[in-house]
Amino acid sequence: MPLTLLTVPCLTDNYAFVIGNLETNEAALIDVPDSAPINQAIAQKGWRLTTVLLTHHHNDHIQGLDGLDRRSELKVVGADADAHRLPPLDQTVAAGDSLTICGERADILDVSGHTNGHIAFYFPQSELLFSADSLMALGCGRLFEGTPAKMWDSLQKLRALPRSTTVCSGHEYTASNAKFALSLEEDNPALRSRVEDIEKARRANRPTIPSNLGLEIDTNPFLRADVPSLMKAVGMETAAPVDVFTEIRARKDRF
Ligand code: ZN
Ligand code: FE
Which residues are catalytic? Predict the structure, then answer.
């Protein structure tokens, strides 16, 4: 049975995610923007939270940790490379490592770019990807620490996962990302229909997160820097994909 996914809205526009194994009642949490909504979501399910997985060091992804119920019993996992600026870790991990979480294998991917040391957690069996502020719905995180080349490399790794993967990213930025994506690829039919769905969801106050990797591949400009139609849209038909990505990221920063 695949893991059950809860999307927990936190703060203004953050998301935390809880995964639960319905056979064992065991649950794990990915990122901790806040504690109260997470405690409530887990209590409502009657799950037993055992593990907290941290994607990167930004405050809006870790600051709720000490407010979690039964805090002292939780195992906190984060990147070895970021251990000096994350809360105290019970287990450090690096790219290429695999863990068992809620009875399933989780692979650790280095997705640096937004920060150096940002990791993603990929659960192949349940086809869940927790990408936080690397790959986002119709976007990618701002480059606070890494280079465009580093982020492009990270995104290519994620793009190589199965299209059926569910993409759990860290923020509700999708509507503004959609405006930017449309400014580049107004004629992309997959993008146009996705934007309609996004507008519908936001009008009903529903999250647009998680999304689907296949849909991201077809519509997210930051995954499309080597797709001829997008290269043409930015006037860089013969450029190297990394340069196209750099240009798209710079345009988004100014948008
Ligand atoms: Zn961040
Ligand atoms: Fe964030």
Answer: 56, 58, 60-61, 114, 133, 171
Q: Using the mean position of ligand 1's atoms as its centre, give its distance from the Cα of residue 189 in Å.
A: 31
* Distance in Å, CA 209 to ligand 2 centroid: 14
Q: Which fold has domain 4-254?
A: Metallo-beta-lactamase; Chain A (3.60.15)
- The terminus-to-terminus CA distance of the chain in angstroms comes to 43
Sequence ranges of the domains in the chain: 4-254
Ligand nearest to the CA of 118: 1
Taking the C-alpha atoms of residue 149 and residue 246, their distance in angstroms, rounded to an integer, is 7
Query: Within 13 Å, how many C-alpha atoms sit on residue 79's CB side?
Result: 23
CB 119 within 8 A of CB 93: yes
Q: Spell out, as residue ranges, where the chain has pLDDT lower than 50.
A: none
The predicted-structure confidence for 228-237, as pLDDT tens digits, reads as follows 999 999 999 9
Shortest-distance ligand to the CA of residue 142: 1
Question: What are the tens digits of pLDDT across the range 3-24?
Answer: 999 999 999 999 999 999 999 9
The whole-angstrom separation of Cα 179 and Cα 186 is: 10
**Spatial contact of 188 and 233, defined as CB atoms under 8 Å apart:** no
Rg (CA), the chain: 18
Q: How far is the CA of 115 from the centre of ligand 1 (A)?
A: 7
Distance from residue 156's CA to the centre of ligand 1 (Å): 19
